[in-house]
Amino acid sequence: MRHCSWGRFSQQARFLRRQFLQEGDLPFSTALSEATIASALEAIEGVWKDRIFSPLVTLWVFLSQVLSADHSCRAAVARLIAHRVSEGQPACSANTGAYCQARKRLPERFFSAVACLVGRALDAQVKQSWLWKGRRVYLFDGTTVTMSDTPANQQAYPQVYNQKPGTGFPIARVGAVISLSCGAVLNLGVCRYAGKGQGEVSLLRRLWDVLRPGDVLLTDRLMANWTNIVLLQKRGLELVSRLNKANRVADFRRGKRLGDHDHLVRWSKPSSIRSLNWQAYKTLPEFITVRETLIRVVQPGFRTKTIIVVTTLLDPQQTTKEDLATLYRARWNNELDLRSLKSTLQMHHLRCKTPELVHKEIWTYTLAYNLIRTMMAQAAATHELVPRSISFKGAVQTLEAFQPVIELQAARGAAHRLRLYQDLLHAVATHRVANRPDRFEPRLKKQRRNPCGWLMRPRADLKREMAKGVIEI
After folding, report:
1. What's the pLDDT at 291?
2. Is 64 within 8 Å of 81 (Cβ atoms)?
């Protein structure tokens, strides 16, 4: 890819990096380097013109849109106008058409490349003390998101089968590989909610190329099956999961005893594997050796009282039963990370009208999430904390408050900006989440919401009857 003006590219890249503390002598300030941005721009073929909505400007406006409480395109373009005026540049049109066309022109692989490169750069630089027993642990889980109810979205991601047409939203399944040490998303996949090859296991197999030999994958019970364990072992990966009692039953009277309710046991190969053909099936071993250990939960407020952890970490000296219990409890961070994406950043309902733009919107949310995780890692390293002890919501609120000041004070020099960054990181590090250990709450709701009822028929039909005076709503 060739740039029309390298000087203008560098200026826009510096501005984008400055907004997320990616300059100066701060730790992890190379996660969003100019080289990273240039590498992602290689996904754009040809020469992009010297227009207002260049790829980097479009990316910045898109990021500001997903991070703002007002997700409208009009507000996003208004922020660009304000920035241009503050820089002494002529204001662009307030019409959102040019911005929407610019988002449409940029390929999805540009957004995915930037988001993944930032997440992997952050994970590669984490401190040794943040790792689990010196090893990198990665989480995987899936969730669902809804999107605008348009014909294109419905065709690509149909709504749930038991909903009446016109009363639900298109729904997609999203799966992510997330670093336990820093919370960064290394890879992400999107598929339909239902159908053959559309489950979380299929998503995981599409994404696990990002993992390296020696890494540990921490998942829920859905992934603890014979085929996954064999395929992971072929890649040199370790698994820590929970026994899926629907497929296997643990009998601690069998196998090699390692301790109280802790043993090694052989799992025989299933009679058939639907995802493999006969030739591939014959090449697999007849059995695998796994470790099963029973964890008793005595803490009040937990619904589950016993958990059987399944792992390929077989040495009880290197990985004790208590180590496995602590590690599996850390899997809850996966739920918190997905909640940060869906609730804190408000990705639970996507607003774009076509599947292509929906994918770009998901990747932009992922990039924003990774950049915030990078800032949290900077705050943790500066104040000798661990990133998981810092509030994600507090980091988002602090960054939102500081960003206008960062932009206004950019002309006062690098030393002044660095002091401003240090103040921002101090404010981020102040918001801790580790001061409420073992808190529990009843799983009940107090407020009664939605007094208007639910939309149980297509909206167009109800509007037609309201116009005729048949019903009043």
Report:
1. 96
2. no
Give just the sign of the alpha carbon dihedral 385, 391, 397, 399. Answer: positive
SS3 of the chain: CEECCHHHHHHHHHHHHHHCCCCCCCCCCCCCCHHHHHHHHCCCCCEECCCCCCHHHHHHHHHHHHHCCCCCHHHHHHHHHHHHHHCCCCCCCCCCHHHHHHHHHCCHHHHHHHHHHHHHHHHHCCCHHHCECCECEEEEEEEEEEECCCHHHHHHCCCCCCCCCCCCCCEEEEEEEEECCCCCEEEEEEEECCCCCCCHHHHHHHHHHHCCCCCEEECCHHHCCHHHHHHHHHCCCEEEEECCCCCCCCCCCCCEEEECCEEEEEEECCCCCCCCCHHHHHCCCCEEEEEEEEEECCCCCCCCCEEEEEECCCCCCCCCHHHHHHHHHCCHHHHHHHHHHHHHCCCCEECCCCHHHHHHHHHHHHHHHHHHHHHHHHHHHHCCCCHHHECHHHHHHHHHHHHHHHHHCHHHCHHHHHHHHHHHHHHHHHCECCCCCCCCCCCCCCCCCCCCCCCCCCHHHHHHHHHHCCCCC
pTM for the full model? 0.91
Task: Give the domain ranges of the chain.
Answer: 225-324
- Backbone φ, ψ for residue 193 (5° rounding): -70, -35
In a 10 Å sphere around its CB, with 0-12 CB exposed, 13-18 middle and 19+ buried, how is residue 107 labelled?
middle
What pLDDT score was predicted for residue 385?
A: 94
pLDDT computed for residue 1 by the predictor: 44
Report mean pLDDT in 10-residue bins for the chain, 473 residues.
62 84 82 86 68 88 90 92 87 92 91 94 95 96 94 93 86 96 96 89 93 96 90 95 87 93 93 81 90 87 83 95 94 95 94 95 96 96 94 94 80 79 93 73 72 79 84 69
* Rounded Cα–Cα distance for residues 460 and 466 (Å): 10
> Given the structure tokens 């099936």, which residue do they identify?
281
**Buried-state track 250-275, b at ≥16 Cβ within 10 A, e below 16:** beeeebeebeebbbebebeeeeebee
Pairing of strands 238-242, 256-259: unpaired
Sequence-distant contacts of 195-201: CB under 8 A, at least 24 apart: 198/173, 199/173, 200/140, 200/141, 200/142, 200/173, 200/175, 201/225, 201/228
| CA 128 to chain CA mean position, Å | 23
